[in-house]
């Protein structure tokens, strides 16, 4: 029978068979993921760009020794710790933590990870010394006395005093491991490296300032072959343009979706929103050195005049949370559930202003137009609330917010993340002597606050730690160098066929266990 089949038909059958055989191979191709973001970081040095836009990208380039588990029921808010670049770790004594590294881990430049890289990552030269190029690191690791390379795969961290949070520090912000030789080569001439190499699942392929950052798969990744061929973070400041790109298929994920856009996105069949309330608070910073704001009664009056619940209702569809001051339930035993929340009382605010002798001097609130979701609407409402209390308030919307410092700074918005589940990971990191309020903005200094925080860093006893944390909050609230507004809702627009879970941090975890494209057969 087959001998009588026309040759053209046999050729067609053969072509069809070849085409069918090729389907599985084609279906196995990994996707190129494109993420529409409001902003991109100026550098990928992971201990420099400690911001929402920075960690969103750097989390896929670098690894920590210990990793926070955000996915399991036990992990929840990320308080559970699991192995990262370290296979294991143990306490040698009350001052010493020994870490065993995974063998054979490769940096993106092909170099093998060793204990020397870990020692250098936290070295005085790079991060913990008084003349470090990365002073931000001292907010996290000033407790370290020294780090020792015992052998190529063993590192010992020795602290100045007992530190109950060392393991959490090594799993969190500023603790991403870099390659020593690469970093030092890039730092020649005293310049801070912008693009150090890491060990993460993706490596830098292309960087265009204020446009996009393209990462490609690191197929030698120790924790499994990446499930995407590339990930591109494309800067699109306008929310409507990001949504349009998601609808058209240009973007697989978009960030910073406003609550009033959730229903619109969910109405489509192939895209949806995924939301989390962040372990982060939007806050205000007051320049206590400015003559108009030098009296703490004026600053406390500004705080009393803010109706935070109305902000949450009007701007966040009641999906954001107003915390009980600068503390959060993920602190566990260090969370004071009985502490009063932040008060809204216009009449008390007016009385404090009168008592302080406020005479209607102008108070300027500065904000970036797009960096924080709802930044401008929140500022507009707060300015009106202050006016209702008798404050001569003015709004300044500027693209150059980070340079509003010194005498130009009166009030600015900011955010504080809970870097690890303890008051030292929130209030202290942000407002302590090495945090931005005192170090970068230079808007506040308080010796009692600093002394109390230093005691908290080296106190083990729970009851004593609770008392110290309460004292820190009392000082901060009474001196009022700023205030908490709310914990925002972070909403992403996502292609439905993409299995990906957002975290309560700005980390965008794209490791194989958290990124699967179900449109690609496995």
Top keywords for this entry?
522 residues; alpha+beta; 7-stranded mixed sheet; 5-stranded mixed sheet; 17 helices; 29% helix; disordered N terminus
Describe the protein.
- This protein has helices spanning 7-27, 52-58, 115-121, 124-128, 138-141, 166-169, 180-186, 239-248, 262-266, 296-304, 308-316, 346-356, 375-388, 427-431, 436-439, 447-457, 462-479; strands at residues 32-37, 66-69, 80-83, 86-93, 96-101, 144-151, 154-159, 202-208, 212-217, 230-235, 253-254, 271-277, 280-286, 362-367, 392-397, 411-417, 482-486, 489-495, 498-500, 515-517.
- It has 522 residues and is an alpha+beta fold.
- The strands form five sheets. A seven-stranded mixed beta sheet has the order 8-9-10-1-11-18-12. The protein has a five-stranded mixed beta sheet with strand order 15-14-16-13-17, with helices on one face.
- Helix 10 packs antiparallel against helix 12 and helix 16 runs antiparallel to helix 17.
- The longest helix has 21 residues, at 7-27.
Which helices and strands appear, and what pairs or packs with what?
Blueprint: H1 7-27, E1 32-37, H2 52-58, E2 66-69, E3 80-83, E4 86-93, E5 96-101, H3 115-121, H4 124-128, H5 138-141, E6 144-151, E7 154-159, H6 166-169, H7 180-186, E8 202-208, E9 212-217, E10 230-235, H8 239-248, E11 253-254, H9 262-266, E12 271-277, E13 280-286, H10 296-304, H11 308-316, H12 346-356, E14 362-367, H13 375-388, E15 392-397, E16 411-417, H14 427-431, H15 436-439, H16 447-457, H17 462-479, E17 482-486, E18 489-495, E19 498-500, E20 515-517
Parallel strand pairs: 1-10, 1-11, 14-15, 14-16
Antiparallel strand pairs: 2-3, 4-5, 5-7, 6-7, 8-9, 9-10, 11-18, 12-18, 13-16, 13-17, 19-20
Helix pairs in contact: 10-12, 16-17
């Amino acid at each position: 029978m087959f001998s009588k089949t026309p040759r053209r038909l046999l050729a067609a059958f053969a072509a069809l068979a070849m085409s069918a055989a090729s389907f599985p191979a084609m279906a196995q191709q990994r996707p190129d993921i494109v993420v529409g973001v409001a902003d991109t970081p100026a550098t990928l040095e992971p201990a420099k760009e400690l911001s929402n836009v920075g960690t969103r990208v750097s989390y896929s380039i670098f690894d920590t020794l210990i990793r926070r588990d955000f996915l399991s029921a036990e992990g929840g808010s990320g308080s559970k710790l699991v192995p990262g670049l370290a296979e294991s770790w143990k306490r040698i004594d009350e001052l010493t933590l020994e870490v065993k590294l995974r063998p054979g881990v490769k940096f993106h430049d092909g170099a093998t990870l060793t204990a020397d890289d870990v020692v250098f990552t936290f070295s005085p030269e790079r991060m913990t010394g008084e003349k470090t190029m990365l002073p931000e690191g001292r907010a996290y690791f000033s407790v370290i006395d020294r780090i020792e390379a015992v052998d190529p795969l063993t590192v010992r961290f020795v602290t100045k005093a007992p530190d109950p949070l060392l393991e959490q520090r090594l799993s969190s912000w500023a603790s991403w491991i870099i390659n020593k030789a690469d970093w030092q080569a890039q730092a020649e001439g005293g310049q801070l490296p912008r693009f150090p190499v890491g060990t993460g699942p993706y490596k830098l392929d292309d960087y265009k300032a204020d446009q996009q950052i393209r990462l490609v798969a690191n197929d030698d990744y120790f924790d499994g072959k990446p499930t995407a061929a590339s990930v591109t973070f494309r800067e699109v400041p306008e929310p409507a343009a990001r949504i349009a790109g998601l609808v058209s298929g240009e973007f697989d994920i978009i960030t910073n979706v406003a609550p009033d856009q959730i229903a619109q996105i969910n109405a489509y069949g192939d895209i949806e929103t995924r939301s989390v309330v962040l372990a982060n608070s939007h806050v205000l910073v007051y320049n206590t050195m400015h003559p108009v704001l030098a009296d703490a009664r004026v600053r406390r009056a500004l705080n009393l005049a803010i109706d935070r619940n109305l902000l949450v209702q009007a701007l966040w569809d009641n999906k954001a949370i107003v915390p009980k001051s600068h503390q959060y339930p993920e602190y566990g035993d260090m969370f004071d559930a009985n502490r009063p929340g932040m008060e809204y009382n216009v009449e008390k605010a007016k009385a404090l202003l009168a008592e302080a002798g406020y005479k209607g001097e102008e108070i300027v609130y500065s904000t970036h137009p797009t960096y924080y979701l709802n930044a401008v609407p929140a500022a507009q409402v707060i300015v009106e609330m202050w006016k209702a209390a008798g404050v001569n308030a003015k709004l300044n919307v500027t693209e150059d917010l980070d340079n509003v410092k010194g005498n130009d700074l009166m009030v600015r918005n900011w955010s504080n993340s809970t870097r690890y589940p303890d008051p030292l990971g929130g209030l202290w990191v942000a407002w302590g002597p090495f945090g931005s309020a005192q170090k970068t903005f230079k808007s506040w200094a308080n010796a009692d606050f600093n002394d109390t925080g230093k005691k908290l860093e080296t106190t083990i006893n729970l009851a004593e730690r609770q008392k110290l944390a309460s004292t820190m909050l009392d000082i901060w609230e009474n001196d009022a160098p700023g205030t908490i507004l709310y914990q925002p809702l972070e909403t992403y627009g996502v292609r439905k066929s993409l299995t990906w879970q957002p975290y309560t941090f700005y980390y965008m975890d794209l490791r194989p266990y958290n990124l699967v494209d179900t449109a690609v057969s496995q």
